[in-house]
Amino acid sequence: xxxxxxxxxxxxxxxxxxGEAEAxxxxxxxxxxxxxxxxxxxAEPPPVPPPEPAVEMPPxxxxxxxAPAPPAATTSAPSRIASRLxxxxxxxxxxxxxxxxxxxxxxxxxxxxxxxxxxDLIGVAPEVTGPIIGLYVVDNQAIKKGDKIYKIDPTPFQxxxxxxxxxxEEQTSLVKVAQEELQxxxxxxxxxxxxxxxxVEQQARYAVLAASNNAPxxxxxxxxNELRRTAAEKTIAEIAIAKARTSIGVxxxxxxxxxxxxxxxxxKVSKTDVNAPADGWINNLTVRIGDTATLSIPNVGIVDAHAxxxxxxxxxxxxxxxxxxxTAWVWLDSDPWRFRKARITGIARGFSRDPQAPMLLxxxxxxxxxxxxQRRIPVTIVLExxxxxxxxxMGADARAVVFPR
Length: 405
Prior knowledge:
This protein has 405 residues and is an alpha+beta fold.
């Protein structure tokens, strides 16, 4: 920094206002002894410093954000119409492509999630009526064919067996008595026949003698009386024989009836033990000791262990290429993440359209909530290999897919 002071800068004339410029000549005219000053040069504008680079400052959190800049001017009306038309064509084209792809896919791949596992539920009903005195199974127990399930009190049926046995003995005795009577009547008939034959001969001889007056009339009358007596005895013997034979027939019929009734009573005794008719699992057991088992009313359910199958309800247009023996793949919800190979064993030839009709035809509901679905046809599918642990559940959900082409 230099010690010498710089000369003072000349003072800049202040800019005049328009009124002031006009007032100076008037003052000069008023004083002619004073010469008017020379007109000053016009002031140069101050130099403009170069613009400094803008420094972006972080926005203050307390300061509200600046409003966004207004959008650029929109395109013209023809451009907007063309853009909307292009978007519409793209949407319609996408929908059409998806529809064609879906139709092609469903033509070659038949898939349904309206499927479930099914077996035969055997309703075990007693063949006699009586109180249950023994129960040999528990709920959900695996059972083999012939295993005992429960026992009905056999006492009344055994008493009936004893009664029929007494009737058999009685009728057997009566048959013997009737047979003895028959033998007696047959012997009497033989004797009466012999006597009648002799009386016929005597009556004929005395009739000849009496006609030639070689015998008295009284002898002929006696011969006639003897003939009538022997004929009556013969008739009585014949009636006794017929009666004995009828009695034998009646008692033999009663004997046969008693034998049959005894066999029925013995059969009832054997049916007091209720056994499993097939292999399977006891399901929903509610029977308890002391309950009364009623004839022909099922009280125990058994899920058959050898009748497992999948019932898949396919839409009508899916089943047209299906064939018996065709391959299917099944996904069990009870054993997920595994497809099991199966075979089509049956395609229903009819289904009910009335849910209230007798269940001789299967009924598949055509609606889900308020959506009306296409009718579905039950298709029976059997797994080629059962699960190793045999864990199948009747009524469980499944999914099936068939590649018919």
